[in-house]
Amino acid sequence: MARITLTDLTKVYDPGGEAVVAADDISLEVTDGEFLVLVGPSGCGKSTTLRCIAGLEDITEGSLEFDDQNVTTYSASERDVAMVFQNYALYPHMTVRQNLGFGLKLSTDLPSAEISEKVDAVAEMLGISELLGDKPKALSGGQQQRVALGRAIVREPEVFLMDEPLSNLDAKLRSDMRTELQELQQDLGVTTVYVTHDQTEAMAMGDRIAVMNAGELQQVGPPEEVYRSPKNEFVADFIGSPSINLFDANVNDSTLTGPGGFVYELEDASPVESYDHVRVGIRPEDITVVEESPNRATVTVVEPMGNENFCYMTLGDVEMTARIAPTKRPVADEEVAFTFAEEALYLFDPVTGESLKTKTDDTTPDLTTEVSG
Ligand code: ADP
Question: Which ligand 1 atom is at minimum distance from the Cα of 51?
Answer without folding.
Answer: 6
